[in-house]
Structure formats: structure tokens, C-alpha cells
Amino acid sequence: MSRRWMITAVIYMMVNAVLFGIGATAVLSIPALAEKASKLIWVVTVLSFVLALPISYVLAPRLRARYQRRQELRRKAGEPLHPISR
Fold it and tell me: Which among 30, 33, 55, 62 has the fewest CB atoms less than 10 Å away?
């Protein structure tokens, strides 16, 4: 399993929760949608599970970018890459 997929797996549930929260808030706060909330909450739930995976996959490299930049600067400066190897 690649690091990108590992990071994707870690952030998947957080992204899913945010998407569900946005959808549920929209359904429950808009009066026209609140009338059909019993059916629309199911739609929001399924969509949040489906859409969370590609969003997490796109976000994963961005979460690792800062670490990679820091490692590259250490390589150029000739410093050890890990604090333990000092």
C-alpha cells in the first residue's frame, strides 16, 4: 500500500464527516428541503461516502508536501534527514 493511499485512508473519515455535515445542514436549514428530509438525509449520507474518497485522494499529497520540502532543504544543507541520526 503506497503512502498516498495510507494518508487517504486516514483522512477519509474526516472528509466524509465534513461533507455529511455540510449536506445535513443544508437539508435541515432550507425549508423546501426540510420537508423531504427523511429521504434526502439518505442521499446526503451516500453522497458523502462516495465523494469523500476522491477528495481524500486529491488532498493526500498536499498533506505530505511540507514534509517533503523540509527533507529536500535538509538534503541541500547536508544535515541529517532524521533527528535520531545526529
Answer: 62
